[in-house]
Design a protein that fits this description.
The complex is a heterodimer of chains A (473) and B (219). Chain A is an all-alpha fold. Chain A contains 25 helices and no strands. The chains are: A mainly alpha (473), B alpha/beta (219). At the A-B interface, helix 1, helix 3, helix 5, helix 7 and helix 8 of A face helix 2, helix 3, strand 4 and helix 5 of B.
């Protein structure tokens, strides 16, 4: 074989290499084009082949490039002109495999059969198997659909960098705020509460870097809030500043969206959480001025949202205006735990109305706050019940419940210590020292509909994936 | 410790200007050298490769050396591609491409050779390579993990035989990306001829157990 005969100047190799790189990053349209050009170039060289061995080997090489680019019919047509007796003997297994594979792909119904197979794998819950099939059959779907499929599969497998890269490719031409874009971020919002904060950040920071838009900026800001909450001191404040920057970018971009997009329920939900966390961050940063401005913008964004009313209440507490905001908030749908906590605190500390304090604390608990808040609320119930004359066993059970939920909660341990010290001193009243605990701030935004909406987005994404696997447009 | 300067993947376009090896093999090489099967600490930009090299004319004992292969200064698009590579390419193809990339750097450094063409043939991980015109054939192969350490030798023999079916002499290159005892990267780059292969096979046959040889001699 004349090794110089095929690809004399390396031009076909270069085209094939570009095709290979394109395939590797999921750019199947470019890959198809490059491999086609490589095959065509090799076919041109056939005129110079004098020996049958060279001629048929060149045809095999050209057919391979067409195959690589998904041009199966063209590859099959060319390979039918190859006489295997002229190929090097050691190439026989390669040739046999190639023929068999090509026949399968060039046959009518290949795409439909493969899509059906992938659908069945999806039903069985085998994302890795689907991914492996897509490696071998990358031309079953349009480029952006393939990217979305791969993104959701990598997400399911916890391969966050790859998921972000694929989703970024999938939403390249999608409108900001569209369902497609929202589906890519649905999973991220609940990962912090699952203890997967760093994975959430790994994903959203990459997606946001590649595709900065209202959705990715807002979700990144929310994730940043959770990261800041795990830190202390100057690190926490620095993280909050980063959060605010992301929020401001997201909010500014949101305001430029078309009106119909702004009405999307899921998008508005993300904006609402963005506002809640931004408000809390600004309060932690001590920037009450900007917090106040943002709250007014949020109230204008959604006058029926109890969130900004609670936030304004927190900003102005203690004051009658704050209490009025809390009372209005609890009348609206999904008020979260915050207004109930402040009203319960007011009932315990100022009104000395223990029954009301207990009722409001139970209401706060029923709003599904996070573990740290739940634990503290159980300790509040313990304190209130003790003040109302409940027996020791009942009170201890309530403290115990709080500590089971959050075993390292400092405030709960301190309150419990006060209780046990008071019991030892027999006549001592722990109520005064507990008042300090009621004054301590709560540090978690209150939006109980996160979980329901995340589940809704995830469900829609999985359903959309199955539709796409089956070949839906 | 490496015996010379780091061989950088970013130099592939200049040393093998006729083929786009950086596009073709760069991401696979970076994946195999730094992510899988061995994940290196983040920020690591080079890896040692233990090289066993038998140069032309293929006689004598192979030389051992340690080379450093690096990936600093490669275009960001190549580094970005590594993020999705294992989700878009099958394991065998990644390993074979990575082996070509490592071999390309070593063959230039050790033999001043230039690769002229790299074309995949068939539907699997087989490649046709051309080097330095007609005069030198090269067969390249990769092994992702050689747990026991003997697959590399077996594959080398296979590739050596393959070279000689096409040409009276050539190179056989096998890169194992995890090799005992330390899961290091090893490359065996051997120049083979029909005479040198025959000589090796004869040496192997002559290494019969002493007892057997003595009993035959006694007869």
């Amino acid at each position: 074989m004349n090794a110089l005969l095929f690809d004399r100047d390396g031009a076909a190799s270069k085209l094939a290499a570009e095709g290979s790189l394109a395939l590797g990053v999921g750019e199947t349209e470019l890959a198809a084009k490059k491999y086609f050009e490589a095959g065509a170039l090799l076919e041109k060289g056939l005129v110079e082949a004098r020996k049958p061995a060279d001629l048929h080997l060149l045809r095999f090489l050209a057919a391979t490039q067409y195959y690589r680019g998904g041009h199966y019919s063209k590859a099959e047509k060319l390979s039918k002109r190859i006489e295997s007796r002229y190929l090097p003997r050691d190439m026989d297994p390669t040739w046999q495999r190639f023929q068999k594979d090509l026949r399968f792909r060039a046959a009518p119904g290949y795409v439909e059969r493969m899509r059906l197979r992938l659908g069945m794998l999806s039903t069985k819950g085998e994302p890795r198997a689907i991914l492996d099939h897509l490696k071998e059959h990358p031309y079953l779907y349009k480029q952006d659909v393939l990217a979305f499929l791969r993104g959701s599969l990598c997400e399911e497998l916890g391969h966050w960098k790859a998921a972000a890269a694929f989703y970024a490719a999938a939403i390249q031409n999608a409108q900001d705020g569209s369902d497609y874009v929202l589906m890519t971020v649905g999973r991220v919002l609940c990962m912090p509460s699952e203890g997967r904060l760093e994975e959430a950040w790994e994903f959203i920071s990459r997606l946001r870097d590649k595709r900065p838009n209202s959705v990715t900026n807002l979700v990144a800001s929310i994730t940043c809030f959770h990261r800041a909450s795990k830190l202390a001191g100057v690190d926490r404040l620095a993280m909050h500043r980063q959060q605010i920057k992301l929020f401001e970018e997201g909010w500014a971009t949101f305001k430029l969206l078309p009106e119909d997009r702004k009405k999307s329920e899921d998008l508005r939900w993300i904006v609402s959480i963005g506002f809640s966390t931004a408000n809390m961050a600004l309060m932690r940063l001590g920037d009450d001025r900007r917090a106040g401005e943002l709250i007014e913008e949020e109230i204008e964004f959604d006058p029926n949202d109890p969130g900004p009313l609670s936030a304004r209440g927190m900003l102005n507490y203690p004051s009658e205006r704050a209490l009025a905001d809390f009372r209005k908030a609890i009348e609206l749908p999904h008020p979260g735990y915050v207004p109930f906590v402040y009203l319960a605190r007011e009932a315990f500390l100022r009104k000395k109305d223990l029954a009301e304090a207990e009722r409001l604390t139970n209401e706060a608990l029923s709003r599904q706050p996070g573990p740290a808040i739940q634990a503290r609320l159980f300790s509040w119930l313990a304190m209130i019940r003790h003040c109302r004359g409940a027996d020791r066993v009942e009170v201890e059970l309530l403290f115990d419940r709080g500590l089971q939920i959050d075993p390292r909660n400092r405030q709960v341990w301190e309150a419990y210590k006060e209780f046990t010290d008071a019991l030892k001193a027999e006549n001592s009243d722990s109520r005064q020292s507990w008042e300090a605990e009621f004054h301590e701030e709560f540090d978690e935004p209150s939006n109980p509909i996160w979980k329901a909406s995340e589940e809704s987005l995830s469900f829609r994404k999985n359903r959309r994936r199955d539709q796409l696997l089956a070949g839906a447009p | 410790m490496s015996t010379g300067p780091t061989l950088e993947l970013r130099d592939l376009p200049s040393i093998h200007s006729k083929v786009s090896l950086l596009h073709h093999c760069g991401p696979s090489a970076i994946v195999r050298l730094s992510l899988d099967p061995t994940q290196l600490p983040s920020g690591t930009m080079a890896r040692e490769v233990l090289v066993e090299w038998l140069s032309c004319p293929g006689s004598g004992d192979p030389r051992q050396s340690v080379e450093n292969i690096g990936w600093s200064g490669v275009p960001q698009s190549i580094l970005d591609a590594c993020e999705t590579w294992t989700a878009t390419k099958n394991e065998k193809v990644i390993t074979e491409e990575a082996a070509i990339g490592v071999m390309a750097l070593l063959v230039h450094r050790l033999e001043s050779a230039e690769i002229l063409s790299v074309l995949q043939i068939g539907s699997g991980g087989d490649y046709l390579l051309a080097m330095n015109g007609q005069t030198v054939q090269i067969e390249s192969s990769g092994i992702r993990e050689d747990d026991r350490g003997y697959h590399t030798n077996a594959r080398l023999k296979e590739k050596a035989n393959q070279v000689l079916t096409k040409s009276p002499a050539g190179f056989a290159s096998v890169v194992a990306f995890s090799h005992p005892p330390n899961r290091s990267v090893c490359c065996r780059l051997h120049f083979v001829t029909s005479q040198s292969l025959a000589l090796k096979q004869t040496k192997g046959r002559n290494k019969r157990p002493r007892q057997m040889r003595n009993s035959k001699e006694r007869k």
